[in-house]
Amino acid sequence: MFTKHFFLIYLLIMTILDKITEQKAIEVAAAKAKISIDDLEKSDFFLRKTNSLVVSLSAENSTGIIAEHKRKSPSKGIINDQVSVENVTQGYAIAGAAGLSVLTDTDFFGGLKEDLHKARIANPSTPILRKDFMIDEYQIYEAKAWGADVILLIAACLSPVQIKDFSKKAHDLGLEVLLEIHDQEELDRSPLEYVDIVGVNNRNLKNFAENNVNASLALAEKIPANIIKISESCISQPETINLLKSVGYKGFLIGETFMKDANPGTKLAEFIAKI
User: Fold this and answer.
1) Domain Indole-3-glycerol phosphate synthase, which positions (predicted)?
2) Domain locations in the chain?
3) What's domain 2-273's superfamily in CATH?
4) Is-catalytic flag, 123?
């Protein structure tokens, strides 16, 4: 009886991020048992020269927008599962996205590794971020094999040693690293030696709360000047882009704002026209 009661309490206090990373460990173990790193290294995509998101975001006429393909989220449920990843990502690229973000987490975000494959084939020269919860070096090899140019490391679910080791391994494989933080504590404890981009997630991943860019504004001057900074989530108005640019942000990761529309690419084009 005590065990059952304790388990129920445990489920109540677990954050969404805890649940995601717990499930991710199960997924990674299953993937390792099925496909070896040697097999991943034999992928056609593994041998390709990657595209630089840093270069794209730094270009003089860059929109700075990293447009995301996202079917659903833990907080919003289904956002849009009626459009193909090829049409969405091509539409984004044509509209002027500086980069693409493709979710590959299945259980919580409805993503698939095939989504990344399809986006890569449809957009050979556009930088693509594998958006997932990276908890194991194996996933970095997956990202390269699936066609990604950039990996996401989330400070909230990694130790400083993991951040350093994972980001170095990504560089060894020719991938760029986007480190996601939410507050000053996460920034302070994160080694940035091999980090290319720091992203401030305006939404707290522990509870998926908040609906503003206050976190980005608060951390703007705290991020080292030699590292490109981007703002993530809670961006729905063109005016917000201009505000964030004024405090030094070069990139803006946006998904839901565009994915809620029947034609995300057209929505992005309209958004860019207002910046």
Assistant:
1) 17-269
2) 2-273
3) Aldolase class I (3.20.20.70)
4) no
Q: Which residues pair with 179 in a beta bridge?
A: 153, 198
* Residue 70 annotated to the active site: yes
**Measured distance CA(217)–CA(86) in Å, rounded:** 34
In this prediction the pTM is 0.93
CA dihedral 67, 73, 75, 81 (to 10 degrees): 100
Residue among 147, 149, 126, 153 nearest 56 (CA): 126
Q: Is there a catalytic annotation at residue 131?
A: yes
Q: Which of 130, 113, 119 is nearest to 86 (CA)?
A: 119
Of 24, 51, 56, 70, catalytic: 70
- What are the tens digits of pLDDT across the range 135-165? 999 999 999 999 999 999 999 999 999 999 9
Annotated catalytic residue: which of 51, 80, 123, 201? Answer: 201
Task: Tell me how far apart the alpha carbons of residues 108 and 19 are, in angstroms, rounded to a whole number.
Answer: 10
Active-site residue flag, 185: no
Catalytic site residue 167?
A: no
Single out the catalytic residue among 51, 80, 123, 233: 233
